[in-house]
């Protein structure tokens, strides 16, 4: 049984059109005034065909084959078919979907690009990272590049003719970029000579595009120590004249490929800069701020990777659970004509599947909601609306990154478990999803860092302003829906959790004033609690849509399934908050008391 | 920084001598009357040297190299050094440690062998499976073999000259062995001609021993359908005369090696039996019962594998967390002379490490306790004591298997996370622990099957008799320790959880009478709750020992660390039971309501 994937178009349409009414929101933005439901649906359809038809077949063989480095030429060969799929991707115009029309983009909303990327990630995370990384470089140059940089790079990143990377990490520093050592010395002609070593550079070298545009963090000679002395440079693999004609090879090359747990099809490179020539992006010493433009988009992208893996793992585990016969149902034979029942009859198999399903559908709702708010934040002409949308995106970004990737790890592992021993075997594809999903909890800021970003920076630093705004939205929904008898089962636990989050936030805030370690001790549990609050809110809203459709006489079984999954979420997944809150409240004492020497 | 491992001798001694007073228990058994503390300690020391010195260096390269099959000769070559390490293992007399002296064994207690195997598993699970599988074959033949079978096979399995396998699974049946199709036809001379295909046969073919003794499940021509028509056969790779001289090659061979997520150093074989000649073990059609002798021991062995991985992952993550500098402590610089603080200052890094530590130390206590009860069950001359020990082992076996392997998956993943991006890179060794740990939740009965075994068979089927016996032991401890002020922090949550387990068990039992799916819906959560009850009991007892030593003036920091870890367990890990109980109580409705077609 080969790995299969059916793009979840129906559920995306449910989220976009029935839950979020996304086109209404988008059309109120001048940049997206012409977006309509038909355009959205057509792009979802075509995007899904590309993902399932072109990318999916490469995923399993690409994992087995991996990338190869020629140590003499420093050239990297990607797995068979990867470059050809990328060619088709470029020819189809996919790279330009949400790019700025000023530089050749189609100017479509991020919300749509997000749905497309979910499907690409389901079909193959390793392949999708090649075009995916370009977006980060595009965003940083779009926001901070000089006119000349924009004119040279943006149209070619937009078309996909060239790809981009982010070169941040060094062997001794990942989380703590303040420690980085790569040096940039002014040549005197406005360019800089950059020397250093970067590691973990995804898509750092490959055979899929004519040029690779590296965004590199480095220190100027007069740079202050620490994170306030870091500048951002653009360093192309090949120099290019203003018209884009490629010139000499720049002194940046791939010295080695990392041997990784997963995403074997992506080239994770150790990059050596040996006096490579680059130009400054943005202000000197302000590189970290410029880089965070890329990082925030990338963090949403990582959540999207795990969403994609969760969905494809779920689909394949369901197919297996319907096909595989083993034992009888505890309540007696369900398929008496066969030697045993399909394993879907067993409650715990269903529990594992429904966990993945609820995480996938909840994650899709959360990501689409966040992307829509991002579109508003970027394109609204109302400053208040712009700011409140940006605030909500800022609050939700660490949740999307950490909550969805932790969920993706659990879900892919559950789906692997459904396959029994076959789940451990490469050819069935499930163990690859687990291995691929594992990196998402680590890169673009570990999930611990996300939790500190949420609790420390996004919640406590502004005295809970952003959280209260979200709470107000939730509260309004509770008040509206709370008068409906058929919504009690969803609204009551949501309201209860909302109260608990308020109390927990205040409690940690108070304790943190006396001891900053209280933030670090509670943050990871806290993020999952708030993640569940957002999920519970979205699941209650989805249930309401389904109930309304049923009340209106719609017999589409889609709504029946949506309600079952919502009830499962509230019965089986939301209760995790009980433990998380107890653990978060237990404080830092039990963690900090032990002397380092005793570990 | 290469992967390192220091055998946790001190903690093993604490568990064996200070917590369990194992030699007192053992010396009361006629077979172990001469076991003393010095012997135990000497074997732990020597065993630890073998594991860390001989096995550990092979683990990472063995994973990268894997096993190779010659498709012409069907010969399997194990990774470089594996066969030589096995030779040293045999020369050191290690295979015979807990084997019957009647067949050349040293007759030492299982408890000691269990500690030795923990160290082997820390050093390399893939290598350790080669000798480990022999134990299962040994046990089945020891319990059910004819005199001739025993005489031929047991001395050579005991010496390690030959190894053994368990051939159960077929492509279409793993959990449900009643479906198996391999056929055994009587030749007429007391032997059988066996034909069929087996998959997932660990150590099924290799270059480490002169002969491989396969224990094979198959159907006789007159066999009833289902699980009551399965017989057990012994099928040697090479025929051998009664004196052990090897003769012709038998018609059983390795047709392919599986490509797995982990344990790459172990040969997981597809075995083809093409009229292979074997002899019956035990009664016709009673093969499954005979096989369960092996399975129960193997399940404890799988728990031990995850314990080993948890311990070695913890040690390496601690070393990294002390060495790696990144960011400052939230409470201000702790290593002002360095550019950043060691990451061990961060609360969540400590939380991940302490989780692994509490799982390792709790798991060690549980496994040693269970192994000691197994020694009593096997060697006591008091029938009541024998039975009550056997009952407790029966109850604890699924908990050891599922709870420790789920914990091992969490713990190795946490330890990988401590390494940040380096955790995803093969050379650092951490991702291998995660991949290796993953199989332990699947094989020897998936963890779902373990949970059904616990709740359905071990608890509900005898109206809670075995569980009540354990509860009585816990209750007696609570009454004794509960009068001590310094034990309140441990005894109170233990007593509370004990009450909750009683209520939960009764509630599920009542519901299950009306609907058997209630068992399947609650079982996985239930097993983890009971796992925590056992852990809380053992952690409280360990804390008491540490408090007593401190009260007696002992200033060994070992006891300080033990108390910190106990407090961490109660503050941060035990609270998981709050969610588990809510989830378990939510019933089967949310799982079973959705039509299969809607998945």
TrEMBL record, chains A, B:
Superkingdom of origin organism = Bacteria
Q: How is this protein named in the record?
A: Acyl-CoA dehydrogenase C-terminal domain-containing protein
């Amino acid at each position: 049984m080969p790995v299969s994937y059916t793009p979840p178009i129906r559920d995306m349409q449910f989220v976009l059109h029935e839950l979020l009414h996304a086109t209404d929101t988008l059309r109120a933005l001048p940049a997206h005034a012409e977006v309509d439901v038909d355009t959205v649906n057509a792009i979802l359809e075509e995007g899904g065909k590309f993902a399932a038809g072109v990318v999916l077949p490469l995923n399993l063989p690409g994992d087995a084959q991996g990338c190869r480095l020629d140590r003499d030429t420093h050239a990297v060969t990607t797995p068979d078919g990867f470059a050809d799929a990328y060619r088709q991707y470029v020819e189809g115009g996919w790279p330009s979907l949400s790019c700025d029309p000023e530089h050749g983009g189609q100017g479509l909303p991020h919300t749509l690009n997000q749905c497309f990327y979910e499907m690409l990630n389901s079909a193959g995370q390793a392949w999708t990272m090649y075009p995916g990384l370009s977006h980060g470089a595009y965003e940083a140059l779009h926001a901070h590049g000089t006119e000349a940089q924009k004119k040279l790079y943006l149209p070619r990143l937009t078309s996909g003719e060239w790809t981009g990377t982010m070169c941040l990490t060094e062997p001794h520093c990942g989380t703590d970029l303040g420690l980085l050592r790569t040096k940039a010395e002014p040549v005197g002609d406005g360019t800089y000579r950059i020397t250093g070593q970067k590691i973990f550079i995804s898509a750092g070298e490959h055979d899929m595009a004519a040029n690779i545009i590296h965004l590199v963090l480095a220190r100027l000679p007069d740079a202050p120590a620490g994170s306030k002395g870091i500048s951002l440079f653009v360093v192309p693999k090949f120099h290019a004249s203003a018209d884009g004609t490629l010139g000499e090879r720049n002194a940046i090359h791939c010295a080695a490929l990392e041997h990784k747990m997963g995403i074997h099809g992506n080239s994770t490179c150790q990059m050596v800069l040996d006096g490579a020539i680059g130009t400054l992006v943005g202000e000197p010493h302000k590189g970290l701020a410029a880089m965070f433009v890329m990082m925030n988009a990338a963090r949403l992208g990582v959540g999207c990777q795990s969403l994609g893996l969760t969905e494809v793992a779920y689909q394949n585990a369901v197919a297996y659970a319907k096909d595989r016969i083993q034992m009888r149902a505890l309540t007696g034979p369900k398929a008496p004509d066969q030697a045993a029942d399909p394993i879907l009859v067993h409650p715990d198999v269903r529990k594992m599947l429904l966990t993945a399903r609820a995480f996938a559908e909840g994650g899709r709702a959360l990501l689409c909601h966040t992307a829509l708010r991002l579109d508003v934040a970027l394109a609204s002409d109302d400053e208040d609306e712009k700011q409140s949308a940006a605030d909500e995106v800022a609050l939700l970004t660490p949740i999307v990154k950490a909550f969805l990737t932790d969920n993706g790890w659990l879900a892919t592992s559950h789906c692997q478990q459904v396959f029994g021993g076959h789940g451990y075997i490469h050819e069935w594809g499930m163990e690859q999803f687990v291995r691929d999903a594992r990196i998402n909890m680590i890169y673009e800021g570990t999930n611990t860092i996300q939790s500190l970003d949420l609790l420390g920076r996004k919640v406590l630093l502004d005295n809970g302003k952003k959280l209260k705004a979200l709470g107000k939205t939730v509260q309004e929904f509770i008040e509206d829906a709370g008068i409906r008898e058929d919504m009690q089962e969803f609204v009551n636990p949501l309201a209860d959790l909302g109260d608990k989050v308020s109390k927990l936030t205040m409690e940690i805030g108070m304790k943190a004033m006396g001891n900053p370690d209280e933030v670090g001790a509670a943050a990871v549990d806290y993020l999952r609690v708030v993640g569940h609050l957002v999920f519970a809110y979205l699941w209650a809203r989805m249930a309401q849509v389904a109930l309304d459709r049923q009340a209106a006489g719609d017999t589409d079984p889609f709504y029946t399934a949506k309600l079952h999954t919502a009830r499962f979420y509230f019965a089986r997944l939301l209760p995790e908050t009980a433990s998380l809150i107890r653990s978060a409240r237990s404080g830092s004492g039990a963690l900090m008391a032990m002397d380092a020497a005793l570990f």
